[in-house]
Structures are given as C-alpha cells and as structure tokens.
Please model this.
Amino acid sequence: MANQNSKPVKDRGTFHGRRAFLKATAASVTFPYLIPASAMGNAGATAPSNRIVMAGIGIGNMGRGDLGSFLGRDDVQYVAVCDVKRDVRDSQANRVNEKYGNKDCKAYRDFREVMVRGDIDAVHCATPDHWHAIIVIEACRNGKDIYCQKPETKTLREGKLMVDAARRYSRVVSGGSQRVLEDYRGIVDACWGGNKGIVKSINVNVGPLPTDCNKAGESVPDGFDWDMWLGPAPWAPYHPHRCSGSYSIDGTSWRSFKDYSGGGMTDWGAHHFGGATFAIDVRELEPEEVIFHNENGRKFATCRYPNGKLLHHNHPGRGNLDVEGTNEAGPVKPVPGYAGTGGIYGDFIDCVKTRSKPFRDIEYAVHTATVCHLFLIAYELERSLKWDTARQQFVNDDEANRLVDVARREPWVI
Amino acid sequence: MTSKEGTTMAVAVGAAAIAAGRAMAQTGSAAVDTAFETLKTYDWGSDREALKPIDQAIIASHGDPAARKALEKRLVDALAGGLSRSAQDYVCRKLKVVGTSQSVEALAALLPAQETSHIARYALERISDEKAAEAMRDALPKVSGKLKPGMIGSLGVRRDAKSVKPISGLLGDSDGQIAQTAAQSLGLIGTPAAAKELSAFAKKAPANMKIPVADACLVCAERLLADGERAAALALYRELNSGDQPAHVKVAAMKGMLAATTKQ
Model:
C-alpha cells in the first residue's frame, strides 16, 4: 500500500508533449479527458451508495492481493471473480461473500462473461502477462475501467493497441506498479528537486532474460482450464512450472518463460524502469534507439530518448537507479502523485470517480514496458536498433519488426 | 521478496545468462549440424540448450543472405522430415525470424491441422512476403471450427486488403466467434472497402454482435483517418453516433467526429 505520510503534490496537467504515435490517436488529443462517468455508459451502473462495482480477473497470487486491497474499501462493491482455476475462483468468491455476508459475488471461468455484465463499472486484472492486452482492450470496448497488473504488455504492438482502446472509450486504465512511486521516491525527489542538476542518464540492473520452455507434459489438475490458461500463447503441455504464479524467475514459474512473460526484464523491469523513467522525467516519451554493447563478452544495452537522455541496462560499474547528472543546481518541478487515499488502488478508484488520469496511466505504463521490450529484442538479435515511435516499427530492420508482435493462438486476436 | 533481494537475485541470474550466451556464441558449424540432428528426436522434455547452436547461427548470419538462406532451407527441410510437435514448434519459431517465400509452402502445409495451424501462423503472420498472406487466404475456406478465427485474425493483423471479401462473407456466420473475429479483422484492415462491409452489416447485426461490430467500426475509422480517408472515417463515426448504440460507443464516435473534422 502507498505511503500516505508524504502526500505528493498533485499534477494532473502534465500530459502535453506526448510522442507522435499517440498524436496519431487523434481523439486523445482533440477531446477533453474529463468526461462525467454518466456520459461514459456508466449511468445507473454504480450502486446507490456511490460505490464502484468491481470484478477481478486472474485472482490467484498477485490478484488475490489486489482483490484484498479493493475489497477493503468502503467505496467498492465487489460482485464477480474470474479465474481458470476452480479452487481459486471458488475460494475468492467465498471470501467476498463472507465479507459482505451474502451470496452476491459470482465466480466465472471465462472473463468474457464478466465483461458483458452491464452492472460492473471496473475490473482489475492480474492474469499472466500474455493475457493482459486482450483483457484490457475487452474491458475498454465494454465500457469498463481497468486496473491491470504490471508488466502491462507482452509485445510492443500490444502497447499502442491498449492505449488506443483506453483513449477511444475514455476509460480509466491504470498500470499496476506501486513501486514506481513508493520505492524510488527518494531518487525521484532528488531529480525533480534539482539536486542532480541536469540529468543525463540513469542505470537499471535487472534480469534475468526470459527463456524457452520445453518441459514435458503432466496431467492437468482437476478444475484447471489449461486451454484457457494458455489462451493466446502457443499450445504446450501442462507442467506446474510452466504456469506457477510463483514470484521466482528461475525456471519454476510462468514469469521465466518467453511465451508468457519477458522474464525479469519485464517483471521487475516494470518496477525499476518505471521508477527510472519517472526519476529522469521521460515517462511521456519512448526511446528512439536501443544501443547494444558487447565489451569483451560483457553485454549490456542503452536506450536513447529523443531529448538525449540515456537509460542504461546493466551498465558496468553503475548501480541500480544510479543517476548521472551535472550535479549543479537544476530545474525544480513538483512531483506528481496519487489521488485519493489508499495508494495506487485508491488512486485508481478516485480516478474512476472523477474521470481523471491515474498516476500510472496506461500510457506511462506502456512506455515503461516498451523500454523492456526494446532491450529484450536488442539482446535477442544482439545488435543496436532504431525505433520509430510514430510508426511503432524498427527502422529498416524487417527481422526486428517481426519481433514487434506474435500471432495469437485461435481464437484470440487483437 | 523485497525489492533489494529481487534486484540482487535478478542481477546474479542475469550475469549467468550473459555468461551462457557468451559460451554459445563460440559454437561452430559442427555444433549446428549436431543441433539439427538433435531436432529429429527432439520432443517435450528434451534439453532446449541442445538447439542453441541454431539460435546462435541465426544471429550470426544476420547480414549474410547466403548463410541465412542456407539456414532457412535446413529448417524447412527439417519441417518436412516428420518432426515431433515440440520440434515443429521450435522450427516455426525460427522461421518467424528468418522465413521468406522459401518457407511458405512448408508452413502452409501445417495450416489445416488442429495441432499445427497456430504455430504455422506464428511464422506466416510475421513474414512480410505476399505469399505468406496468400497461403492463409487460401487456407481460410479449408479450415473450420476454432482454426478459422485464427486465420481471419492473422489476415486482419496483416491488414490484408485482399481478404476483405472472403472475411466479409463470414460476418453473419452462425459461429459467434467466427463472426466476431471477422468484424474485428475488417476493423484492423481498415480500408474503405472494409468500412463499407462493416457499415452494411452493422445495420442488421444481431444483439450479440452490436459491441464487436461497433468496436470494429471505430477501429476501422481510426485507421481510415490515419490513412487520410477522412470522408470514409466520418461516415462511420456518424453512423455510430446514432441509433441504439451504448453511451460509451456514442461518445467514442463523437470524439472521432471531432478528430476527423479537425485533423489536418
């Protein structure tokens, strides 16, 4: 949960100067963002007590924690849970019903049944990463706001589609890294407070890279919809390590494997790079180049932003979130923060009510994930790449462009 | 796990991965030959590291068309050699990166089968050669059930204008998944012809298709606008900003109209 002791200065007006690719979504820059919820198709959907009616999708592991944070709020009414594991969805439905002392919370196996319910205002999603884009876009097209766990995207192409969907339908879509503000506040304050002078670069140490998974099949546990768990990912036989939600990234969880995750690069990278891009104030930008280094077999990489700032990954001799600045008196800017109370969850709920952009707006979250994917592709191809932020393609590199997305397993398409 | 512990663990494992990569970079052609031999008996549970020399050869052959073509041929030949599903999966993933028109016939042969259709598209969808799209267009009428929306989706992602007609014919399919994917893909294709088909179907769409078709129309309109087809985009937006569309769709259409009328 958020540290509420040092309430940050609100700054809701810092969304000018976006990258050109978002300008292509003309609607997002030609129409005011603040539109009453009632005009967004939510009329009559909220409870009479003004509570936000919510559902959770993917409610094991991290989703269980997210559910608890939303369930503990007086301004939220929880009505549905969804998971491909029967024991998980049943236990979490019971948890909700015990909290309210009724049987109103329904358990679903298929998230599409949740999305078409007209009485639900908002959902949170904590499925494995390969599902995020499909679920976020489906929520938006059904007029629902959504809080999506990090890392928000599995491929580069997904990011623009998610932002487009959010803007198209004026949805509140929040990414799910609470650490961006809460873990790195000290370095953010130093940079935004001018203590580092003109910031030139920052380094992030994070890993490991994801691997391929070729584990032998085992019997699918009773009550586990394996086909739905795989969803858009290539078919593979069930193995407990393939789908374990453990936070380890050592080959014993889905976070380790390319089909479902970007490994530590995206899983922890969503936090670290999110904090780093916040600290050096490039949240609104995407890098235009990723430079691959191989110095005597020591591989590392650097993203260069259009304003010249550098974001290193595993730079030799640099510590994590290590900022390089001119160390003279630099410009001072107020640090943006959460709305409402209750950390990142409260920020989301407050924004659902006020139709404001959340602190971890999907655009910022996608930009962070894009950094992670650019690094992953540069490491996979072992070469430097130029990224056209407007066209969302690599420049003159057909091979790299093939890695911008993956074909999804039927019937899933975005 | 705390942030600090996570970072320490991640850096340690990352360093190990980099060291492993360095070792693999030293592999030669004999290692590649061995890897291709291994592929013949490769199956779920086999050691994935045994195929790493092929991964490294692909990286090393960047900028060397002859070497790349030879490597692609070896992968295509392997695919025709009766591989396990896991080995087919591996080869298709590699052809996603190095495949050209040379690979299309072998990949197209995998499209009709339930077990291999997706992994064939995994490569074909990302191969820019027109023959890759042609293979999926040809397969479209030959596949059924779940495979059909997969094929429709890949053609949509490619924005394959030649698919507008065959996909439009599936808008009224009795299989709701096929019909919805058809609408979605027409939206992704986003040409004036796709817009015309979506617009015509929207007027008679059944209740369960209202949201998918409206969303497809909005996506289509955005793509038309980006491509300079302002009149066609405006026409779609106007249609969506009327009738019994949900409020969030009407607002989206209104925003689109504003964008279409102000975009230079």
